[in-house]
């Protein structure tokens, strides 16, 4: 009898023991970034310029992925990648931002934590070196979600963020583009290429960390020649940025007025959550149908809790990249990956 009980215990216990020893599923830590969508066709940049864009995108991916690989939080990875792009003069965010109609640089940014749905955003700042850091400080150190202009800068000072002179953001190539736009406007000309480019340029990142948490962040100088007080989609939670562990994380780039009206980022995550779509299907619907049908363009990066991702745009190109344990991809033009 004792032998029978021992054998029975072994056979019944064995599967349970086997289950106990099964490895826990590993979260596929991933970062996806963009450096803006627009009229990006081969030949637009010199080989040297193109190489510089690709190198900086790789650097931003590496910075964000290093955080994730060492067990860091998705929010930290997003911030690390965006800071690098804000500091790089070639992107329309931080240093290198486009000029307003009055010849100023006014910056917008936002960040969101998919684990808690906490979010922070700033609009129209002119002296904060890294607006993404300020957006995060708003999320973590205030009771509010968004601060604008003077108030945002007062909050930045009170919280020890690095402030710079407004001239820090000025770059020669943006100044020349601004002067060309002023001239074209004065002469009542339609400089099609330039006017098309008015609407683009933004940087963003979405990340998935080892704890399974998602985060998203976006930063921009907005639209060139924007009027007094104009705010685009970038600091609007649900338009420029959204993250929820239940569905996905999104960062947008494109013609802000349309991204606000279509609540692009939230719509993608809602389709994933309520309709069971993949991130690719949801991004495809929102960008290639809803946005396209309104006659606007731009793009999104989207990341799901299982590590699946989409980099979707209906403009000619989008600076973009992804890094996970299996791949590191950088692309600029359509159909490049
Ligand atoms: N998507 C950036 C802006 O419209 O301001």
Corresponding CATH superfamily: (Glycosyl)asparaginase
Strand content: 15-25%
Number of domains: 1
**Which architecture does the CATH hierarchy give at level 2?**
4-Layer Sandwich
What class do helices, strands and sheet pairing give? alpha+beta
Helix content: 25-40%
State the CATH topology. Glutamine Phosphoribosylpyrophosphate, subunit 1, domain 1
How many angstroms separate the termini?
Answer: 66 Å
Order of neighbouring strands in the sheet with most strands: 4-3-2-6-5-1-11-12
Average pLDDT for all residues: 91
Overall geometric form: globular
SSE pattern, N- to C-terminal: HEHHEEHEHHHEEEEHHHEEEE
- Number of E-state strands: 12
| Level-1 CATH class name | Alpha Beta
- What summary fits the major beta sheet? 8 strands, mixed
Q: How is the quaternary structure best described?
A: single chain
Number of helices: 10
**Spans with pLDDT under 50 lasting ≥5 residues?**
1-19
Q: List ligands, each type once.
A: glycine
Gyration radius from CA atoms, angstroms: 22 Å
